[in-house]
C-alpha cells in the first residue's frame, strides 16, 4: 500500500510544527550546554537588547551547527512521518512534544514567587536614590571597581593548594576586606544584570518586550532611576568604563551612557585606537585590556581636585571554557586562536586574569597622588556552568561571588577593616560602595535601592538576611510595576 500523502496545507502545518518542536529542543540544549540553567528574564533581556552578532564567534559557530542539526532532524522526522499511517504518527509527535517540554524544564527556571497579597515586593523596600539628600565627602577618593567575568569565590579554594587558580587575588583578598557571602539573584545572573544590580541596587528585568509601546521601552534604560554612577557624576567624579567586549552587546553601552559614564571603551573603541582585537572570543583580552586601561588612567586631569571612577570588566574567564590569552599564556605551543582542552583553557584564563587584575590593583593603590582611594574587585555573577568544580572546595550553603573591598587615605594608608560574615546580594553593593566612597544621605541613612550598607556602624539586616535568599529571589523575580515605571522614567 502506498503511503498516505497529506494535502499541502496540512503538510505545511505538520512541517512547521515539527520544526518548532525540534527548534525548542535544539535551542534549550544549546543554552543548557553552554550557559547552564537560565531564567526567562535572562533570555528575554538578551533578545530585547540584541547585540548577539557581537558575541564570541566560536559560540555563534556552535549555534549555527546546532541550527543545522535542528534542520536535519526536522527533515528526518518528516520523512518518517510521511511513511506512517495517520494513527501511527500521533505517538511519534507526542514523543517529540514531550522531549521539547522536558528540555525546556531542564533548561529554563522561573523563580518568581509572588507576594501572598499580590503586592510589589520591590516597591515595598526600594529607597529611591533620587529622593534622598546626598552629601559628598570633602576629600573625594578615586575609585576602582573591577568586575571579573564569572568569578566564583570557590576558585580561591582549590583542593590542592599547589594548583591555585587565583593566587594573587586570594592574597589580595586576605589583605582587603570581605563582607561575607555574596549570593546571586536571578536578575543578576548575567553580565549586564550583575553590573546593573550592583550599581543600581535592584535586579535587572526585561521590560516592554511584548507591549504596545515596546519601541519606547527599548530606547530607555532605567531612565527614571539613579545608580551609583549617576550620584558620583553629579558630584564631580569623571567616570570611565574599560571593557574588552563590544559595548553593543546586551545593551551594556546604552546602560553606561544613560547613567553618568562619560568615557566608554569596548572592542570597537580599542580597534579604533589601532589595537588588534582577536577574531575569536569576546573581545580585547585581559592582558591588553588592563594595560590600556592603566595607560588611560594616567591621562592628565581636567583640574586638580577632579576625582575619578574607573570601571573595568574582564573577558578572559567568560564561559564556556575561557580564552587563551597570549599576553600571559603558558608556553603550550598553541597558536593565538587555537583551542585546547576546555578545563586547561579555563585554568589558564583564571590565572591570567588573576595576575593582570592584581597588578592593576597594586598599581592603583601604590599611586601617590594625594587622593584617598577605594577599590572593589568582584565577580559580575557566578559562572553559570563551571568546569572545575571537582578541583574546588565549595563553601557550606552554596556558591558565592568573589569580592574584596579596600579603602585608603590620602597618604596611601589602608583604613581599618574587618572581614564580616554577612549574607548579601548584588543590590547591597550600591549603598556599601557609596558609603565606602564617603557619601552620606538622609533620610533612610545606609539604605539605597533595595540594599543595606554593610559598612554601617549600626547593623541593618539585608533583605537576604531578613527574609532568606529563596524568598528574596522569588519575590524579586516577579514583574514589578515600579521597575517598569523607573525604566521608562514615569515615576
Automatic annotation (TrEMBL):
GO terms for molecular function: phosphatidylglycerol-membrane-oligosaccharide glycerophosphotransferase activity. It is an enzyme of class 2 (transferase). It is found in: Cell membrane. Residues 141-438 form the Sulfatase N-terminal domain. The keyword Nucleus does not apply. Keywords: Cell membrane, Membrane, Transferase, Transmembrane, Transmembrane helix. It comes from the Bacteria. The keyword Cell membrane applies. Its main location: membrane. The chain crosses the membrane at residues 59-81. InterPro entries: Alkaline_phosphatase_core_sf, OpgB/LTA_synthase_biosynth, Sulfatase_N. It is a multi-pass membrane protein. Its EC number is 2.7.8.20. SUPFAM superfamilies: Alkaline phosphatase-like (SSF53649). This is Phosphoglycerol transferase. It comes from Roseateles asaccharophilus.
Amino acid at each position: 500500500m502506498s503511503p498516505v500523502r497529506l494535502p499541502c496545507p496540512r503538510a505545511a502545518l505538520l512541517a512547521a510544527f515539527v520544526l518548532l518542536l525540534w527548534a525548542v529542543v535544539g535551542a534549550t540544549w544549546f543554552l543548557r550546554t553552554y550557559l547552564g540553567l537560565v531564567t526567562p528574564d535572562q533570555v528575554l533581556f538578551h533578545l530585547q537588547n540584541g547585540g548577539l552578532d557581537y558575541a564570541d564567534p566560536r559560540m555563534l559557530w556552535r549555534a549555527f551547527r546546532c541550527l543545522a542539526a535542528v534542520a536535519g532532524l526536522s527533515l528526518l522526522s518528516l520523512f518518517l512521518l510521511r511513511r506512517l499511517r495517520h494513527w501511527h504518527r500521533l505517538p511519534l509527535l507526542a514523543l517529540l512534544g514531550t522531549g521539547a517540554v522536558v528540555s525546556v524544564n531542564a533548561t529554563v527556571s522561573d523563580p518568581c514567587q509572588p507576594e501572598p497579597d499580590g503586592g510589589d515586593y520591590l516597591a515595598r523596600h526600594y529607597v529611591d536614590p533620587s529622593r534622598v539628600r546626598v552629601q559628598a565627602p570633602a576629600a573625594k577618593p578615586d575609585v576602582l571597581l573591577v568586575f571579573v567575568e564569572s568569578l566564583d569565590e570557590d576558585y580561591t579554594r582549590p583542593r590542592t593548594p599547589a594548583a591555585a587558580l587565583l593566587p594573587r587575588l586570594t592574597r589580595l583578598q586576605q589583605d582587603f576586606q570581605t563582607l561575607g557571602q555574596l549570593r546571586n539573584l536571578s536578575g543578576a545572573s548575567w553580565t549586564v544584570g550583575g553590573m546593573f544590580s550592583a550599581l543600581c541596587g535592584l535586579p535587572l528585568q526585561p521590560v516592554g518586550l511584548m507591549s504596545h509601546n515596546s519601541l519606547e521601552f527599548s530606547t530607555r534604560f532605567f531612565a527614571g532611576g539613579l545608580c551609583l554612577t549617576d550620584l558620583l557624576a553629579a558630584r564631580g567624579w569623571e567616570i570611565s568604563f574599560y571593557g574588552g567586549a563590544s559595548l553593543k552587546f546586551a545593551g551594556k553601552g546604552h546602560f553606561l551612557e544613560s547613567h553618568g559614564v562619560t568615557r566608554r571603551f569596548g572592542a570597537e573603541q580599542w580597534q579604533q585606537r589601532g589595537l588588534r582585537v582577536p577574531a575569536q572570543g569576546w573581545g580585547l583580552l585581559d592582558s591588553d585590556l588592563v594595560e590600556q586601561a592603566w595607560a588611560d588612567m594616567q591621562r592628565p586631569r581636567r583640574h586638580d581636585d577632579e576625582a575619578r571612577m574607573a570601571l573595568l570588566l574582564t573577558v578572559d574567564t567568560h564561559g564556556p571554557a575561557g580564552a587563551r590569552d597570549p599576553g600571559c599564556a603558558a608556553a603550550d605551543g598553541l597558536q593565538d586562536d587555537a583551542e585546547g582542552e576546555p578545563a586547561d583553557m579555563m585554568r589558564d584564563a583564571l590565572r591570567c586574569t588573576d595576575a593582570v587584575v592584581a597588578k592593576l590593583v597594586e598599581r592603583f593603590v601604590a599611586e601617590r597622588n594625594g587622593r584617598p582611594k577605594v577599590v572593589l574587585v568582584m565577580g559580575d555573577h557566578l559562572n553559570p556552568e563551571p568546569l572545575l568544580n571537582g578541583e574546588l572546595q565549595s563553601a557550606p550553603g552554596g556558591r558565592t561571588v568573589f569580592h574584596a573591598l579596600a579603602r585608603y587615605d590620602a597618604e596611601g594608608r589602608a583604613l581599618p577593616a574587618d572581614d564580616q560574615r554577612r549574607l548579601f546580594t548584588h543590590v547591597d553593593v550600591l549603598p556599601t560602595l557609596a558609603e565606602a566612597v564617603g557619601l552620606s544621605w538622609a533620610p533612610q541613612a545606609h539604605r539605597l535601592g533595595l540594599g543595606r550598607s554593610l559598612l554601617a556602624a549600626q547593623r541593618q539586616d539585608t533583605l537576604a538576611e531578613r527574609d532568606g535568599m529563596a524568598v528574596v529571589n522569588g519575590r524579586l523575580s516577579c514583574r514589578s510595576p515600579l521597575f517598569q515605571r523607573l525604566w521608562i522614567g514615569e515615576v
